[in-house]
């Protein structure tokens, strides 16, 4: 168990810790000269069962509340220290607010310097403490009158016994998640190198493990571990740990950084939170500037309220914190908010979504997503998060949000689509069916409006049917939908055109007869077919009837028109599409780009014709131009005329 002191300056916190443990936590020269704590101090005491009790001693001066908040995060038990001569003071109240806002639910009170107060004064201070704690979860916490400067003080002994009993009855924290440690101190030891200390927020770590430093992304290796001030092969959630790290210099690490499993780390400048404004805090308006204490870090931010335009004292609302610097956090992490001058604590709360969006923050769909994320933080309900993800969620992202690896069978009725690099997209089965229906409905609407068209290309259908599907972020889902609809016959494809099965453009008998003359001539021309005027002359027909028929054949997917009055037979265009895929795969830079000169040489055509064909493929959505190159679109589909060689670009 980890105990954190709390209380006003000069109320004897450090002296009490020394009396309880025998450890002097003021280690800095300035602390000893001034007689006040400036930095966090740490002390440890053995328990009868062989375990170790850890105590974090925090500074009491109002100028060091940011340091106090860094020390209080992650503690299990608050030791509120009140001097009998002074009684309850401003930092007594603020420190109590902080530990409560951080979610601490148990505590004890040390009434220090009790030899300096008469019995009636002691009774009055006890009454003041009881009144202070009455409206909180610490109501009724035991109070121990102590004189820590006296050896073998009975009050100190009773407090020590009480803390030991509480620690021994405290259930161990679960440590089945992924490891992360909030750094509150970093130093070097001769012959050993960089050492970081902090509270383990989740998981476990063993000697030899590889972790990552959050701020730099640098990989580090754990050389050795001290857990609760004892050499150990492992460190567990809820323990104070010191990690000796290889692979990083002391100067690269600062308080507020994390040493964590790489699968947990993703930074964000926007986090959605549940905030509780203190009853004596001022009203909060939209975009109020604040200071935020999260983990052991200190940041500046603005508050964007997600409910209403103002936050009243004593109220609790959802809000978005827009931070000036990125942070690393997970749902459920506790935080403290202080005013713009950093002179008083005004609110606290917990993280709901570490990766909050900048737009549509108040939409109904967003509210449901936040409900699911709160269920994840409170009950570990990963299923709710997947159900509320409109376009699915990457398994890696769900791991980051939950702070642990998913268990086999944990997500029944969930589809998995490959994303690459071992990751998969998780999508609720009901949402998958709704998305399929939306695609088919979009295709039906297109046919109803443009019956003469053979179909629609994949990029346009995506914009029509699923406008919320973002390029890049949802490409895997779109490819999966197209593949599934084509494979089960719900949708068909002719060249680059997607259409419903059975949809076709009908020809008259005369048109059928003329088409039987034109198509062989186009096929014979392959990559360099005859122009409309040449086809009309050889077929002894007028140019306009030939032109109109070829356009109708194009709507059937039998020919393609890259430029005016030039049509390619479908097999030739199939071959050109396959050639583009081959050239993209052969690009030595790995970018998948196709240069005009490479396409020209591969087709044997002139530069002008090669560029015209490349621009055609750009126009129909099979490729896109980037500077002087042409890239296959990730959602591009091409159905060859023979029914074979269909692929995804």
Give your account of this protein's structure.
By secondary structure, the protein is an alpha+beta fold. It has 18 helices and 35 strands. The protein has a six-stranded mixed beta sheet, sandwiched between helices. A six-stranded antiparallel beta barrel has the order 7-8-14-11-10-15. It has a six-stranded antiparallel β-barrel with strand order 16-21-19-18-22-23. Helix 4 (90-101) links the parallel strand 4 (77-83) and strand 5. The longest helix has 21 residues, at 429-449. The radius of gyration is 34 Å and the shape is elongated.
Structural class: alpha+beta
Name the average pLDDT. 92
Report the major sheet.
6 strands, mixed
Distance between the termini: 56 Å
So what's the overall shape? elongated
Q: Tally the helices: what do you get?
A: 18
Gyration radius (Cα, Å) is: 34 Å
Oligomer: single chain
Strand line-up across the major sheet: 2-3-1-4-5-6
């Amino acid at each position: 168990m980890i105990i954190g002191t709390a209380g006003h300056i000069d109320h004897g916190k450090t002296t009490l810790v020394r009396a309880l443990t025998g450890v002097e936590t003021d280690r800095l020269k300035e602390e000893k000269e001034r007689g006040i704590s400036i930095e966090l101090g740490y002390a440890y005491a053995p328990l009868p069962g062989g375990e170790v009790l850890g105590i974090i001693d925090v500074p009491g001066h109002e100028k060091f509340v940011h340091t106090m908040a860094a020390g209080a995060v992650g503690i299990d038990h608050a030791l509120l220290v009140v001097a009998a001569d002074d009684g309850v003071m401003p930092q007594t109240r603020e420190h109590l607010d902080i530990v409560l806002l951080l979610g601490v639910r148990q505590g004890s009170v040390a009434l220090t310097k009790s030899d300096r107060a008469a019995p009636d004064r002691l009774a009055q201070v006890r009454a003041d403490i009881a009144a202070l704690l009455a409206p909180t979860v610490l109501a009724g916490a035991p109070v121990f009158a102590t004189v820590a400067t006296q050896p073998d003080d009975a009050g100190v002994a009773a407090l020590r016994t009480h803390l030991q009993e509480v620690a021994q009855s405290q259930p161990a924290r679960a440590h089945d998640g992924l490891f992360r440690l909030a750094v509150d101190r970093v130093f070097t030891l001769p012959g050993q190198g960089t050492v970081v200390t902090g509270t383990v927020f989740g998981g476990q770590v063993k000697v030899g493990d590889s972790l990552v430093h959050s701020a730099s992304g640098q990989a580090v290796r754990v050389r050795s571990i001290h857990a609760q001030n004892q050499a150990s092969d492992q460190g567990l959630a809820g323990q104070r740990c010191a990690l000796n790290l290889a692979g990083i210099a002391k100067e690269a690490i600062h308080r507020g950084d994390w040493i964590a499993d790489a699968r947990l780390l993703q930074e964000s400048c926007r986090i959605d939170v549940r905030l509780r404004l203190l009853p004596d805090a001022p009203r909060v308006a939209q975009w109020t500037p604040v200071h935020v204490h999260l983990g052991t870090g200190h940041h500046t931010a603005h508050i964007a309220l997600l409910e209403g335009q103002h936050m009243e004292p004593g109220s609790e609302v959802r809000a978005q914190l827009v931070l000036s610097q990125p942070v690393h956090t997970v749902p459920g992490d506790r935080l403290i908010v202080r005013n713009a001058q950093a002179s008083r604590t005004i609110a606290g709360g917990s993280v709901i979504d570490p990766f909050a969006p900048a737009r549509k923050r108040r939409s109904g769909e967003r509210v449901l997503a936040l409900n699911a994320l709160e269920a994840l933080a409170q009950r570990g309900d990963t299923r709710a998060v997947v159900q509320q993800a409109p376009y699915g969620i990457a398994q890696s992202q769900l791991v980051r949000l939950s702070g642990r690896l998913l268990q086999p069978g944990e997500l029944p009725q969930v589809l998995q689509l490959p994303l690459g690099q071992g990751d998969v997209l998780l999508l609720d089965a009901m949402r998958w069916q709704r998305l399929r229906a939306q695609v088919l409905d979009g295709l039906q609407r297109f046919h109803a409006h443009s019956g003469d068209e053979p179909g629609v290309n994949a990029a346009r259908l995506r914009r029509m049917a699923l406008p919320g599907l973002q390029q890049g972020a949802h490409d895997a889902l779109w490819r999966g939908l197209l593949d599934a609809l084509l494979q089960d016959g719900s949708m068909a494809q002719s060249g680059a055109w997607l259409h419903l099965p059975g949809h076709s453009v009908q020809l008259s008998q005369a048109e059928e007869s003329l088409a039987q003359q034109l198509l062989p001539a186009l096929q014979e021309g392959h990559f360099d077919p005859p122009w409309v005027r040449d086809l009309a002359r050889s077929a002894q027909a007028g140019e306009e009837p030939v032109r109109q028929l070829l356009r109708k054949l194009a709507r059937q997917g039998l020919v393609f028109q890259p430029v005016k009055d030039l049509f390619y037979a479908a097999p030739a265009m199939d071959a050109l599409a396959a050639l583009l895929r081959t050239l993209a795969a052969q690009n030595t830079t790995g970018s998948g780009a196709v240069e005009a000169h490479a396409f020209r040489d591969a087709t044997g055509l002139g530069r002008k014709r090669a560029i015209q064909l490349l621009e055609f493929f750009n126009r129909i959505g099979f490729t896109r131009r980037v500077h002087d190159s042409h890239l296959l679109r990730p959602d591009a589909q091409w159905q060859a005329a023979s029914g074979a060689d269909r692929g995804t670009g």
